[in-house]
Amino acid sequence: MLTDLLGDAGYIVAEAIDGYQALDHLHERRPDLIVLDLMLPGMSGWEFLERSRERLEEGNVPVIILSAIKGTGDYPATLGVAAWFTKPLEVKRFLSAVEQLTGPSQARPSEAAAVRTDRQDILVVEDEPTIAALIVEHLEGEGYAVEVAPSIDRALERMERRMPQLIVLDLMLPGRSGWDFLRNREHDARLAAIPVLVVSAAPQERLIEAKDLGAAGFLSKPFDFDVLSALVRSFVP
What we know:
Elements: H1 2-8, H2 19-28, E1 34-36, H3 45-59, E2 63-67, H4 75-79, E3 83-86, H5 91-102, H6 109-112, E4 121-125, H7 129-141, E5 145-149, H8 152-161, E6 166-169, H9 178-185, H10 189-192, E7 196-200, H11 204-212, E8 217-220, H12 225-235
Parallel strand pairs: 1-2, 2-3, 4-5, 4-6, 6-7, 7-8
């Protein structure tokens, strides 16, 4: 999600899954900024900061912490980091901090402000009218053509007429659930070719189950609309 978010903002992003891989990246090139989680497998974020301190100071590389741990008081200063964000991420503040620390991205204003002429078709499968209306309003404001189906059966009826480029799927639906749809979708080549973005209040382990069933990504309710936009653009730019 962070890679998509920063990429859409015009930044070039390299990824590391733990402190060891981050050190390898740091030895190969000097980044303009590091966004660091603390609770990482293998080498933690704390250990990465300790082992890379000299190189970070030499290259004047700022570090933003993004963690479930709250950086209260003078704790961020004692770690020597430039900014601290607690999950779930406040996207606008985060991007503002990134720009302050690195300067504007390389995205051309003319591209960022371009009017979408090739409207991508999105089907939102959501039974809660208020949530569905908010998602539709937001995505239409982004230039997408959006339709809503309140159930899996209605969604399948709609897809008989025209296939969307993306399905935004709630999991806890009346009748057949989103998990049922994902299981059955594997047996239909046309449906299997459409990326599915799950947006649901289901517990984390059930969201991961949906990912294992073929969902291309998931977002927990309540969600940030900027994050939703970034994820949608990663599937239907």
